[in-house]
Each structure stands twice: as C-alpha cells, then as structure tokens.
C-alpha cells in the first residue's frame, strides 16, 4: 500500500505541485485580511466575575480610555510650569481623536458668589491676575481637587488626556510620543506617560519588531543548520518549504475565520520552523542512509524510509498537536487561539512532510557518493556515544544526577509566581514601565479600582446616607496599602463649610445631588465620575500601593464584608483594573494546571495505544515529566513569572519534547528485532538515534533561541526556556529511557513485536 501511494504521488507530482501553488494563492489572499489586536483586556475571559463586574462598572460610570501625562521639572517657577501645561494642553487638543485634556488650568473650585451664594471659578483663576504665592495658596487650600495634577513639592505636574471612543489609539500614541520627544529636548524636563489602553500600543511595536527581524533570522539560521547537516540545498529547501506551506495554510485559515493576530500568535512561525523541520531531519537522514543501501534507487529508499518512520512521525505530530491543542479549552482567548492554530500548523506540517518531501526527493539524481561521506562523518560521534553507553547502562554514575535534580526542583518551585499586570510584561526601560514606577513613587501607586455604593436603590439625598458613605471612605483610607481614595466627599465638605460651617449639610447635599448643575458644565462632568445619573449610587476611586505584598482582591473582600456587616441595606460593586488583574492570576494558574493535565493524559494515551503497552507508555512519558519539572523550576530560579505569554511554555516543552522519547523507543523496538539481547539493542539505538535526536534538539532549540533577542521580555523568556527544554528533553530521553529499558525492559512480547 505504501509503495502504491508513493508511486501515485510521484506519477502525479506535477498536478499536485500545481494544486499546492493554487492553495498558496488562495490562503495567501486571506492572510492579508488578518487584523492585529493586542488589547490585553480582550484576552480576559468574558465569564470571569471580575470582568462582568468591570463591564457593569463601565455601564454605570462610562469612561473612555485615558492617558496620564506627567512632567518632572528640575527647576522653574510654579507659574512657568502652569504656562507649560497650558501650552501642552493646546497642542494635545489638536490631535485627532482626543476627547479632552484636564490639568491644573481646567480644575474648578467652589467659591462664594452667584445667585445661590456659591459659584465656581478656575483654580488658576482666569478672572483674576494672581501672584505666584496666591496661586500656590489656592492650590494648597484645594488639595482635594489639585492633588492628581501636581505633587506636594511642585516638581511634578500632570494632565489627563481623554481618548474618543472608537479612535485609533495607535495613531494617537504615535502623535503624543512625538510631542513628548520635543518636550524632552528641554534638559530641565522629563516626561512620563501611562495608560491602561497604551499597553497594547507597546506590545504592537514589540510584535512588529520581532516579526520583521526575528522571523527572517530564524529562517536563515535554520537554513544554515540544515545545510550543515545535509549539505544539499534541495534537502534544505524541501524541509523549509514544508513549514512555509504549513504557515500559509494556517494563517490563511485565521484570515478566513477572521481571527485577530496577537503577540502570542505572532510566535507561531518561530515555533513552527524548528518543529516542522524535526520530522524532516529524521526522514531525510534515514532516506540518505537507505539511498546508499538501495544503491541510489530513490523509490526503494523512500519506501524503506517511510515504512520505518511514518508511524513514529505521525505519533510525534499527534502528541505535539495534543500539547498545543490542550489550550483550546483555555478561558484566555490569546492562549486558546495560539493553542488551536499552532496545533493546526503542526498537522499541516506533518501532511506536507508526507506529501512534499517525496516530491522534492524524486527530482534528485541517483548519486550516493556524498551520502557515504556524510554517513562517515556521523560515525565521528561514535566515541561520545560509547562514553554515554558506559555512563548510562554500564555504570551507576548516573545516580548523581537524581539529587541534583531534586535540589533544583525544590529551589525553583518555591520561587515561581504569577503576574497578571500587563504593564509588567514590558521591558524595564520601556516608557510605560518607567512611568508606572515613577507614578507609584510620587502619587501612592498605579493600581486602581472602584467601589460603587448603593442604598436600597434609593436616591442619595439624605445626610444620614452621606454620613455612612463618609465612614466607609474613612475606613478604606486607614487600610494598609491604600494610597488614596477619591470621591465626591471633598466637594461635599467644601460646600458644607462654605454654606453652614458644618462638615455635612443638607444644603450642600441638595446642591451636589441635584440633577441640574449649579456650577456649570465642567462641574457636571466632574460629578459624572462620582455620582450616577439617577443619583442612586456613588463611586469611590481607590489607589493601591504597588507593593507586591498588597493584594487588591483581599482589600476588596474586606471592604465588602465591612459594608455588609456595618451598614445593612447598602450594596457594593467593587471592580477595576487592579481587581481584574489579580483575578486573572487565578485564571492563569487554572489554565496552567488544566493545560498540563489535558496534555499529559492524551499524550500518555497516544503512547499506550501506539505501543500497545501501558509500561512502554509510562516509560516514554517519564523523561518529559522530568524535563517539564526542570523547566518549571528554572522559571522560578530565573525569576520568570507566569503571565499571558509564558503560560504556554510548559505545553510547548511537552508537545515538542515528547518527540525525542518516541523516536528513541521506536528505534529501540526496531533495533531489538535485529540485536542479540536487550543490552546490544540499547547500544544500537543510542548510536543510531542519538545523533538525529541531538541534531533535532540543536536545530529546534536554536530556532527558539532566536526569540532571546526579542524586545518583549515574555517572548525572550519563552525562547530561552524552550531552548533549554529541548536539550533537557533530548538528554533525559536518551538517559532515562536507556536506564529504564536496561533495568526493566519492555517484556518479550513487546520487544519482539513488529510495531514500526
């Protein structure tokens, strides 16, 4: 049957090649339809309770994306800083897509006057010509309104830039950063900018850099390595063409299904190039050997090669598919998309290895001279393999490895932790990361969440209710880790003092909760941040310290319990970026655990069904368990966190690393039929399969190592760890399988059965 398949394949090779060329045009067209979307918020599971609460919060208190801009002055008067703010505000307002800009110049405060005895005026009054000390006095007397726009020592001033809904944030960020570069030309000024919506902008930049530079480097590197192994250009082209077609089909399918491109899916090509050539390396190396044995007869060489390797290659592709496809059940959309389409790409690569390689090889001439030379060069490694045989199965020296691994596991496992804050995924030198740290030092933190308070669905128009709101606010301010609490209370106190000299007055409450503003349009916009339109709920905005020991979710739970116990009838809705990020930590942990379970079980079952032995399946999976544990421990030792990107590392290591065990076990079963005893079969397997496995690990690992030059830290960590895991998986497979088979064997019926 195999011979008939190969004959028909070669017979209709030109027709098949034309069909493949047509498929390239078809899928290539749909690749151009793919949209890029790196908005980390969209990766959050929509059914996550924190996400539902966050969406409900935005419904009640709608707020577009804002950009927080800060400028640090090394010198200059207060008036000069305010004038600079005014100039920058005018500049930023001219950018298309900017909804508005708020700073010290736009802040309004209540003052005496007007029909009701109270009116409003700008903090930096436009009606009065104020001296610098008068401006400073007004700012200090109205800290509750100005604190977010100027630091206590007046060295830092800031503004909030609002973005219109539907505006192109990438274009806006480009324009803002361009203006910041101009401002930074002044040696006395250092600017900072941060935003929840700006993270995707910097991720986009890192992704496009990696895709345009690292992918070609990976391609070139794999090309050179393959050429060094085979020394034949058409062998290298054949192996790489398998991956190129698999990628075109995969990304074309994404375009057809309108699946957006993210930073995680952008690494599929870099993953597939080394993975896809793995089977090609085994097939081409054995084909070259068989071509010598069959005296240059291409058809017979192909038949012998595919007869021995088609099933192991299918199994390696199946287990690799299982490793990635396990993410199809992930709640995180980025991870789910990555897993599904990486698995599909692996399947396509196997398909093209079966179809495309014979087509390419059928065009070569039946010469065997170079093959003899290359086989001879492989034998140069026989000295190393003789040493390895003595170390693994002829002595007990391998025992020293066990305590070393245990020490590494214990040390590393204790240090692994989860980080769901998307800003921490950016490089330390990134503007957003620097700004985040700067704001945390000067303004109490950058982890924000909101508390919406509602009392029996009634209007908040009584002194009793506002007295209770004040007590809740005071309780929160006194909690450890709280940097600031913003609310409408400072305005309420200010008005009450001006109207009656009391801390809370009915008149002030009536003025604030009135549906029609007494203070003009700007004050109504201000109140929208803290009071619902129907005046039945109020919002407290909380700033948490950036200390990793401070857990916003725990703080939120304590606040919720306090309100329920102390003020029956009050309802709370607690949500925001800080709560959302921390809630994602549990999702990441759940994703990591579930994906590992849903990877190991299918892989184990595939091995058992393929080898028809639970014992063989169990032995085959032991090396990958050790290598996975080793990489997990290494994450802790290196300080690599589990985040939206690195959560895929373990499954990648399992899906690829299991291939080495499969090829070794298959090789042993094949060698056992030819060898006199188990010991000779193991030696033969080590010599026959050791070199291809090491070549495979080197090519695959080096392909991933290219990612170490990424400008995006999680991708860099991913590349380094997968590189290490390839050698760990290959080494553990060769070592532990040799030891296990030597000590226990597979049983006479298994060892003599013609499986491959």
Q: Describe it for me?
A:
The chain has 756 residues and is α+β, with helices and mostly antiparallel strands. The protein has four domains: 60-201, Alpha-Beta Plaits (2-Layer Sandwich), CATH 3.30.70.100; 212-373, Multidrug efflux transporter AcrB transmembrane fold, CATH 1.20.1640; 380-415 and 613-756, Up-down Bundle (Multidrug efflux transporter AcrB transmembrane fold), CATH 1.20.1640; 434-581, Multidrug efflux transporter AcrB pore domain (Alpha-Beta Plaits). It has 27 helices and ten strands. It has helices at 2-11, 13-31, 49-60, 78-93, 132-141, 143-146, 169-183, 199-230, 233-256, 268-293, 298-325, 333-361, 369-378, 382-393, 401-413, 431-443, 463-477, 489-499, 506-513, 521-528, 552-566, 577-611, 614-638, 649-672, 678-705, 713-744, 748-752; strands at residues 66-73, 98-102, 108-112, 118-122, 156-163, 189-194, 447-455, 482-486, 537-544, 570-575. It has a four-stranded antiparallel beta sheet with strand order 2-5-1-6. The two termini are 15 Å apart. The model has no long low-confidence stretch (mean pLDDT 82).
């Amino acid at each position: 049957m195999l011979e008939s398949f190969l004959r028909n394949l070669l017979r209709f090779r030109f027709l098949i090649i034309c069909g493949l060329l047509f498929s390239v045009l078809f899928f290539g067209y749909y690749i151009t339809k793919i949209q890029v979307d790196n908005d980390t918020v969209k990766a959050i599971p929509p059914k996550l309770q924190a996400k539902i609460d966050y969406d409900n919060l935005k419904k009640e208190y709608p707020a577009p994306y804002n950009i927080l801009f800060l400028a640090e002055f090394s010198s200059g008067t207060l008036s000069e800083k305010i004038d600079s703010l005014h100039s920058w505000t005018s500049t930023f307002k001219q950018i298309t897509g900017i909804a508005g800009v708020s700073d010290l110049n736009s802040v309004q405060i209540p003052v005496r006057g007007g029909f009701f005895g109270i009116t409003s005026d700008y903090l930096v009054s436009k009606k009065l010509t104020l001296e610098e000390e008068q401006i400073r006095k007004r700012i200090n007397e109205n800290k509750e309104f100005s604190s977010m726009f100027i630091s206590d020592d007046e060295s830092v001033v800031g503004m909030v830039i609002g973005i219109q809904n539907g505006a192109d944030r990438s274009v806006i960020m480009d324009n803002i950063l361009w203006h910041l570069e101009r401002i930074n030309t002044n040696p006395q000024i250092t600017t900072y900018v941060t935003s929840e919506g700006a993270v995707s902008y910097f991720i986009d930049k890192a992704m496009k850099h990696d895709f345009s530079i690292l992918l070609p480097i990976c391609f070139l590197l794999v090309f050179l390595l393959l050429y060094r192994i085979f020394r034949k250009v058409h062998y290298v082209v054949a192996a790489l063409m398998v991956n190129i077609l698999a990628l075109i089909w995969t990304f074309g399918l994404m375009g057809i299904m309108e699946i957006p491109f993210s930073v995680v899916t952008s690494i599929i090509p870099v993953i597939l190039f080394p993975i896809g050539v793995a089977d090609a390396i085994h097939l081409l190396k054995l084909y070259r050997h068989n071509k010598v044995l069959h005296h240059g007869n291409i058809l017979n060489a192909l038949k012998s090669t595919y007869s021995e390797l088609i099933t192991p290659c299918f199994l390696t592709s199946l287990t690799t598919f299982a490793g990635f496809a396990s993410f199809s059940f992930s709640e995180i959309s980025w991870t789910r998309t990555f897993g599904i389409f990486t698995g599909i790409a692996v399947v396509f690569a196997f398909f093209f290895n079966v179809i495309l390689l014979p087509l390419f090889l059928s065009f070569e001439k039946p010469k065997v001279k170079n093959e003899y030379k290359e086989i001879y060069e492989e034998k140069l490694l026989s000295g190393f393999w003789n040493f390895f045989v003595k170390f693994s199965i002829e002595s007990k020296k391998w025992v020293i490895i066990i305590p070393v691994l245990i020490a590494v596991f214990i040390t590393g496992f204790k240090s692994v932790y989860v980080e769901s804050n998307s800003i921490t995924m950016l490089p330390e030198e990134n503007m957003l990361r620097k700004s985040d740290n700067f704001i945390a030092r000067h303004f109490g933190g950058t982890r924000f969440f909101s508390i919406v308070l509602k009392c029996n669905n009634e209007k908040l128009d009584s002194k009793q209710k506002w007295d209770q709101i004040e007590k809740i606010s005071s309780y929160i301010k006194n909690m450890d880790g709280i940097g600031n609490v913003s609310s409408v209370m400072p305005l309420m106190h200010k008005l009450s003092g001006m109207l009656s000299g009391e801390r809370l007055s009915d008149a002030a409450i009536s003025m604030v909760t009135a549906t029609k503003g007494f203070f003009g349009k700007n004050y109504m916009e201000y109140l929208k941040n803290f009071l619902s339109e129907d005046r039945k709920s109020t919002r407290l905005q909380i700033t948490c310290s950036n200390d990793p020991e401070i857990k916003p979710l725990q703080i939120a739970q304590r606040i919720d319990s306090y309100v329920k116990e102390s003020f029956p009838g009050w309802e709370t809705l607690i949500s925001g970026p800080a709560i959302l990020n921390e809630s994602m930590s549990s999702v990441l942990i759940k994703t990591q655990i579930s994906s590992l379970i849903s990877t190991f079980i299918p892989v184990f079952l595939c091995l058992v069904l393929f080898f028809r032995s639970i014992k063989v399946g169990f032995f085959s999976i032991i090396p990958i368990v050790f290598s996975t544990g080793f990489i997990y421990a290494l994450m802790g030792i290196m300080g690599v966190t589990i985040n939206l990107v690195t959560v895929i590392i373990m499954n990648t290591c399992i899906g690829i690393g299991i291939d080495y065990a499969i090829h070794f076990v298959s090789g042993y079963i094949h060698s056992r039929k030819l060898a006199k005893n188990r010991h000779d079969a193991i030696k033969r397997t080590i010599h026959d399969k050791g070199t291809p496995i090491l070549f495979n690990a080197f090519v695959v690992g080096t392909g991933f190592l290219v990612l170490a030059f990424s400008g995006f830290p999680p991708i860099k960590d991913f590349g380094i760890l997968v590189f290490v895991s390839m050698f760990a998986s290959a080494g553990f497979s060769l070592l532990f399988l040799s030891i296990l088979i030597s000590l226990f064997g597979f049983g006479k019926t298994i060892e003599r059965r013609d499986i491959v």
